[in-house]
Amino acid sequence: MACPGRLVGGKGWEVFVDMATELICTRGFEQFAVQILGYGPDFDAMRARIRSRGIAKSVRVYGHADVQTIRSALHDSVLVSRSRLPKGFQITLLEAAAAGAQIVSFPVPKVHYLSSDGCPSVKFLI
């Protein structure tokens, strides 16, 4: 499960960490690999939340990452587009689809185009 993007309030990194915690600690996916790529003002708070939830051994935090690292992390993974605040179409969704990732997203503006155009891997969070 991969989460690329800027770590700022309102962009949903908290939702992502809590979702990972649910899968790892409650649902028994102890070997689940979680990747967080990006940096921002909430970086330290994000790391603290990971530690406080007890999932640090399952989470790889990259910080700033180059294009190849992001592409590798997305390949055959699940991109969780955790933001509820995008202003337009998120290019990360196209990058994820091109890398062979499945996509899980809130029903934000424009994401329905991927699903309606036949992208087989788009699922929606409610």
UniProtKB/TrEMBL annotation:
This is Glycosyltransferase.
